[in-house]
Amino acid sequence: MPYRVTFVCTGNICRSPMAEHIFRRHVQDEALDVEVDSSGTGRWHIGDPADHRTVATLRRAGYTSSHRARQFESAWFDHYDLILALDESHQRDLRRLAPDQEAAGKVRLLREFDPDARDLDVADPYYSRDSAFEEVREQIEAAVPGLLDHVREELKNAG
């Protein structure tokens, strides 16, 4: 059974789809048995594609970008092994939604996996300048090595 990771932000059109596509590429490059997707805490953008600035940022960096926004549902806690919030407000929302302590324990902040991160939030670039999307990409990519180490360890322990 694959290890399942999901990334969660507010509307699932900026940060979480970017993290999804970046991390998916890395697990595919390593041929890890990992499923990767994303969702949002809110319902405003359900069915929408990723923000055009997210798409442009991903494409410039050589990543895929196909996406449709969806909202995280409490029933999904059983499906995922790791639920990565992009900021502390998402983490709080997800933990409140969790049916029990075990499910709440699956929720972590993405930037916890970046040993050099001073602020654990990935700032929302939606209302910001276009260059903020590049900053988000850089923050996500900085967390990937630590996240990959964690997932490799989880896969080793499961097998």
Automatic annotation (TrEMBL):
<dbReference type="Pfam" id="PF01451">
    <property type="entry name" value="LMWPc"/>
</dbReference>
<feature type="domain" description="Phosphotyrosine protein phosphatase I">
    <location>
        <begin position="3"/>
        <end position="150"/>
    </location>
</feature>
<keyword id="KW-0378">Hydrolase</keyword>
<dbReference type="InterPro" id="IPR036196">
    <property type="entry name" value="Ptyr_pPase_sf"/>
</dbReference>
<keyword id="KW-0904">Protein phosphatase</keyword>
<dbReference type="InterPro" id="IPR017867">
    <property type="entry name" value="Tyr_phospatase_low_mol_wt"/>
</dbReference>
<dbReference type="InterPro" id="IPR050438">
    <property type="entry name" value="LMW_PTPase"/>
</dbReference>
<protein>
    <recommendedName>
        <fullName>protein-tyrosine-phosphatase</fullName>
        <ecNumber>3.1.3.48</ecNumber>
    </recommendedName>
</protein>
<dbReference type="InterPro" id="IPR023485">
    <property type="entry name" value="Ptyr_pPase"/>
</dbReference>
<comment type="similarity">
    <text>Belongs to the low molecular weight phosphotyrosine protein phosphatase family.</text>
</comment>
